[in-house]
Structures are given as structure tokens and as C-alpha cells.
Specification:
single chain, alpha/beta, Oxidized Rhodanese, domain 1
């Protein structure tokens, strides 16, 4: 029983640490319909975290290449800290979006979202992609 209590306590400390870290816990999902509207209205900064090779093959229109921009990400983001920032990677199983999303949160952005279907979901939906 003592081991279980220690394990449970460790779990709650880990959860509290993660929740208070200011990272991905502040990032919520954005639906396909919401993202499509934001792309059409050019009302979001979209960050592709799939790598430069994938970025060149096809990306959500208007997306920036995180690999190229990460060292100076603040330059690519708007002055308005409430602006919509959307990070995405390959698909539902890909956690790489967290790198860009967490970076935006650390820079003070408060409306950071995650497009979970990623580029695979975007393409499967029949939505337009940009290519280099």
C-alpha cells in the first residue's frame, strides 16, 4: 500500500509540474472547419513542424516552416499576443507539433491551437496544399 501511495503521489506531482509548465497544456485543438476558415480569411499563423523536405512537398496554405524559422520564431509571429497560432505535424499520432506550440506559448501567445489531423488529415480532406 505504501508503494502505491508513493507512486500515486509521484503521479500527481508530475501532472502538476506539467500543467504548470506553460507548455502544451495551454494548447487546444482546432477543428478542420475552424482551420479552413482561418486559412481562407488569412487570420492565423500556421506552423508546419514536419521538416523542410515535407514542407516543400506540401503544406497547409500560408504555413511557415518551423525548422527554418525556429531560431527566430518571434519574427514570424504577429505583435498581437492574442492572435491565432496553429501548429501541426504529420497526423494524429505525431507529437512534434508540441515543439512549435510550446515555443509560441513561451513567447507569450495565448491563442495557440493544434491541428491534430496534421498534413495527412488535411490532404485526406481534399483541402488545397501549397508546394515549393
Amino acid at each position: 500500500m505504501k508503494k502505491f501511495i508513493l507512486l500515486l503521489a509521484s503521479f500527481f506531482v508530475a501532472v502538476a509540474t506539467f500543467a504548470g509548465s506553460g507548455g502544451s497544456s495551454k494548447v487546444t485543438r482546432i477543428s478542420h472547419a475552424e482551420l479552413t476558415a482561418a486559412v481562407d480569411q488569412k487570420s492565423a499563423v500556421i506552423i508546419d513542424v514536419n521538416g523542410s523536405k515535407s514542407f516543400k512537398k506540401g503544406r497547409i496554405p500560408g504555413a511557415i516552416d518551423y525548422i527554418v524559422s525556429k531560431a527566430e520564431l518571434a519574427k514570424f509571429l504577429p505583435a498581437d499576443k492574442n492572435a491565432l497560432i496553429v501548429a501541426y505535424c504529420g497526423n494524429e499520432q505525431c507529437p512534434a507539433y508540441k515543439t512549435a506550440a510550446d515555443a509560441a506559448v513561451r513567447l507569450g501567445y495565448t491563442n495557440v491551437r493544434h491541428y491534430a489531423p496534421g498534413i495527412e488529415g488535411w490532404i485526406k480532406s481534399g483541402a488545397k496544399v501549397e508546394k515549393s
